[in-house]
């Protein structure tokens, strides 16, 4: 019990109350009650350790956001890959991401990809297949559909609009 009291003290938990409770149980002579209390205190210590070692939702969300910001051009970035990377369920990753980013994962990823695609289209940086690949799409048809859904016009029309303006 001395070791447990020392650990409680090191964890900034007032060990005096626990010491008094333990002493009263020990003095009662009821060893079953004493060991039950030791188990209870051990549980308190373990829960506190687990809580202190668990990263907060904000920390996890920030790491997810940072990862997506750095890797959005990779075609394999998905909720499933993020969940596997940090050993969480897909639904937990989705919820955490939305809490931190303010929008759901797929809307955020699409926005990053489409904003980069618009830059490339304005710069006239190559053909559609190259742009699609550069922003994380495995095929040009998926890119064109996503762009039209996001921007309201086809990527070719967007590029022409900027060609005429430039």
From TrEMBL:
Entry GO MF terms: DNA-binding transcription factor activity; sequence-specific DNA binding
Domain of life of the source: Bacteria
Domain HTH araC/xylS-type: 62-161
Keywords noted in UniProt: DNA-binding, Transcription, Transcription regulation
InterPro entries on file: Homeodomain-like_sf, HTH_AraC, HTH_AraC-typ_CS
SMART domains in alphabetical order: HTH_ARAC
PANTHER family named in the record: ARAC-FAMILY TRANSCRIPTIONAL REGULATOR, HTH-TYPE TRANSCRIPTIONAL ACTIVATOR RHAS
Name used for this protein in its record: HTH araC/xylS-type domain-containing protein
